[in-house]
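Re: Re: ligand-bound prediction request (bumping)

Still looking for help on this. To restate: I need the protein modeled with FE2/S2 (inorganic) cluster bound, output as structure tokens. Inputs repeated here so nobody has to scroll up.
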Amino acid sequence: MRFVINDTDIETDIDPRTSLLDLLREQIGLTGTKKGCNQGACGACTVLVDGERILSCLALAVQYEGRQVTTVEGLADQAGLHPLQKAFIEHDGFQCGYCTPGQLCSAIGMAAELQRGLPSHVTGDLSAMAIRATREELAERMSGNLCRCGAHNGIIDAIDEVFGERRGQQGYDAEMPEKVA
Amino acid sequence: MSIVKDAAEAAKGLAQAVTKKAIEVAPDGWVPGGTPDPLIRNQHGHVGKPVSRIDGPLKVQGAARFAAEFTLYGMTYASVLFSTITKGRIATLDTADAEAAPGVVLVMTYRNAPRMRPMPAFGSNRMAAGGDDLPVMQDDRVHWNGQPVALVLADTQEQADHAKSLIRIGYEAEAATTSFEAAKADGTEPGQFQGDPLQVTIGDAETVLASAAFKVDETYRTPRHSHAAIEPHAATVMWDGDMLVVHDATQAVTHTAWSLAHMFGIEQDKVRVTSPYVGGGFGSKTLWQHQVLGAAAAKLADRPVRIVLSREGVFRIVGGRSLTEQRFAIGAEKDGCFTAMIHTGTTIMTPHSAMPEPFIVATRSGYAADSFKMEVRVARIDMVANTFMRAPGEAVGTFAMECAIDELADRMGIDPIELRIKNEPEKDPTVGTPFSSRNIVEAYRAGAERFGWARRQPPGARREGEWLVGLGCATGTYPYYRMPGGVARISIGRDGHACASVAAHEMGMGTATAHTQVVAERLGLPLDQVTVEYGDSRLPGLFLAGGSQQSAAIGAAIIAAHRALVVELLKLAGNDSPLAGLKPEEVGGLDGGLAKLDEPARWESYASILARAQRAELSVEAAAPAPIENQHWSMHSYSALFCEARVNAVTGEVRIARFLGSFDCGRILNAKTAASQFRGGIIMGLGLALTEETAFDERTGRVMSASLAEYHIPAHLDVPAIDVMWTNIPDPHTPMGARGIGEIGITGTGAAVANAIYNATGRRIRDLPITLDKLLSAGIG
Ligand code: FES
Ligand code: FES
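Reply:
Sorry for the wait, this slipped through. Here it is.
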């Protein structure tokens, strides 16, 4: 089967029971994506598929044949780290770093959801033209990504810097990497 | 026999008591830390700077390699089957279908597992790392519900998991003790912690309490907690000839190597344990059965093994914090001075665990009082061995103590901060030793100011729409420890690059970064000229990333190694150097070399010294002195915590709107990573206060909340912006002037939240976690 992972074509035979997460970690050797629970409860395994965030532990690899999968290993480019990766370092948005790849991919997928105007549980005005990327919005939308080290403040600070309302109108457009936007 | 033994014990006890007394009364200069670490004087070096984590770029790119991410040639995958009864024996065992399933390499049970000694439990030897002292898959006995009873090895994880489902086991169950009430009815015993009885009696506290002008006397309950590190326990294991190599996720590499060697009956140097990154530990990443099973299966199959516990598996075989039922009573004079403090109660252990939750530890040095009575009693039940979890004892003990003080202040109509300050002890209230550095009052004053404590209103007075709003505070405290066994090596090359090597751990605390700063400053080097090597049992020293003591242990070992390095460098420098004739204590690191402290022009670079001596490198190793400073001084980290809670008057839901931690932990080594440690501890404390409880079925002895969907840790929206600040007053008696920062954050947080909820609602919940059902039954809504 043919997979497209971080813009690279990969041909591999797989056991149809294999999850996308295990395909990445055990077969392709992309161990950046983490397994925290293997049952959809922690978000550590979050990757982007055609720019949308999914939990790769709950996804069978065979469903993603030929689709654009982006993992944490694919966020940086020749120009260097993705702005969000830099912001995570600057704001100390991690301690052990085990939830980090999931937080990063999730935040990038989340920014696209905000941009598309998808409301969340805490969105006040559902008919507004644009949703304000307040800290509360960001925190609500990131709540599927658990962090036990307690790096929550640094994570939200980093996301706020790159995608939050502080960045103003053109905010996240400028920062969306092309391959996942 | 027993008389002889008793006499021997008594003699040992007497000898210990005499030594203890001698340490207490020894001149300061004889005790490590008697002379302040010279590093404390430097105010403008690397130490204290908010340096970003040196492993940050790796971690944000997913390039930091964790235990389950080492790939070995011919590797097999393990899947573990857990018992479904609590106690009894395996009566029938049919593994034929599993063995015949595709890809299966072998099925291991007690019948074919290699022979091994039982797990050496923590405390049984200074290098023991086991959570219990049970044999691992050696017989048909079942000791807890969830014990590993079989392991399948296969070429892929999918094959191993499938084959496991084909194993058929029949059990003969026996009666087990699985409820707290039944365990208490069976009788309790006194708890022992670190070799000492968990008991303090000074004066007649009960009588004093009975006649006190004001008093509180309440029972506080805390449930079981799980560490719930996001990285599940895992190991990648291989036998290379007679050498066992374990890529582990552990906070105790050397302890684990020794313990595995002991179990397999081989020399310690035949086991190598690495642990370069750990995805969170909090006390849980020690030796449990999975590493042993992985090594045993690798031996049996003669192939490398990857063993990753499922999330359920972590809950089944890795114990957590045990529950407590604590009585806390305080008697006070009319002026608020405490006359009696009573802190007693019961916790649960298993028949084979090594750790009674020592909930009185913080009370021993918290406040002045005329009389004290403290005791931890232990009841035993059959379940997975409980163990230490972040701030064992203090996290739950301070909940009782700091709520009780709040209750007393409320009854007396005194501000709870003033009541605490009124009872601030001048020396350790139960041991009598002086404090090394205690600035809790400053921490309170500064925190209260920044938090706006003065705006606090009487209980139930502030309402904003549906929300009742309240402020609460509490003190946190955690002892300074330094465990024995610290050894460090420092190597310096002709290129001026230095490497410090310690068998220590980086689980996200910031250890590698902070100690790079410390070593660079001692040596007078820029940060990029220093490497700190860690996470490998082949490196020097015995370090435990636990008890908030790793930095002190590393720091003391580095001081010793640095001293030895300077001695060697001066020898090498010889008579042609500007340093000729100087003594080690007269020089220090400066600009990539050594300089006379009061005459920096007398300087020579490391490169030049080594070049003249025709040496490519100089490498020295030295051991830290015995850690007796905390017997000479009473040494603790402190915090003053402030919380604003909002409680929904209709639903009883609680939201934490604001939180501030004001810390007094000596000198802060890295402002950025330290702030994260403080926040991380506080956030775990928010979980302890509001959501966390390992649900346990008292009928079957089984953990019910064996997933992250059912064990509720704080998520992003539960966590407000947490403000942290610190006194930054160096402790004159510790390496670098620093005290521990890893566990202090969780201590006191439960009480700060409970006290804020009380202030919001006028309702006192003494049973954690404070969930909305408890608030509703207390009359909210
Ligand atoms: S590993 Fe996928 S959600 Fe936890
Ligand atoms: S950084 Fe450790 S779990 Fe988030």
